Amino acid sequence: MALIHWNDELNTGIPSIDSQHRRLIELVDILDREVQSRADANAVACVLTELMSYANTHFANEESLMIACGYPGLRKHRLEHDAFSQRLRVLLARYVAGTTGIDREILVALRNWFVDHVSVTDAAYVPALRAFCAA
């Protein structure tokens, strides 16, 4: 069973953003499956690395759209992105070093952050981006 299910609450109505969000969901779900199946550490680290890399690419894309439309909440939004990226870097470093594992609690925390971020924080920039695109 998927850890995150796509639903209307996650839908921004912006195709490029929604596509990227779906890919992030897919990567979190792959990570969950790898952890649940007790895959070897390299497989888990690879998925976590891909998740981190893709999240950073997505964040950069999202931020460039916010800059283009003059979204006033960019600074705060970027801080959330930076904090999440740092959290993933630390998790990966600790996992690779063998000082932490990835358990259900960590996966649920990733899910909760993602769902909250998309449904609340990302939803806040959607009207500005739509207005910009319509202009």
Find the count of extended strands (DSSP E, 2+ residues): 0
Overall body shape: elongated
Major pleated sheet = none
The CATH homology group name: Hemerythrin-like
Task: Let me know the average pLDDT.
Answer: 91
Helix content: over 70%
Which fold name is given in CATH as the topology?
Four Helix Bundle (Hemerythrin (Met), subunit A)
Strand content: under 5%
Q: What is the CA-based Rg, rounded?
A: 16 Å
Give the CATH architecture. Answer: Up-down Bundle
Ordered list of secondary-structure elements with their pairings:
Blueprint: H1 15-36, H2 41-68, H3 74-97, H4 104-134
Report on the architecture of this protein.
This protein has a single domain, classed as Up-down Bundle (Four Helix Bundle (Hemerythrin (Met), subunit A)), CATH 1.20.120.50. The protein contains four helices and no strands. By secondary structure, it is mainly alpha-helical. The N and C termini lie far apart (42 Å). It has helices at 15-36, 41-68, 74-97, 104-134.
Name its key features.
single chain, 135 residues, mainly alpha, Four Helix Bundle (Hemerythrin (Met), subunit A), 4 helices, 78% helix, 0% strand, elongated
Brief characterization of the structure:
With about 140 residues, the chain is an all-alpha fold. The protein has helices spanning about 15-35, 40-70, 75-95, 105-135.
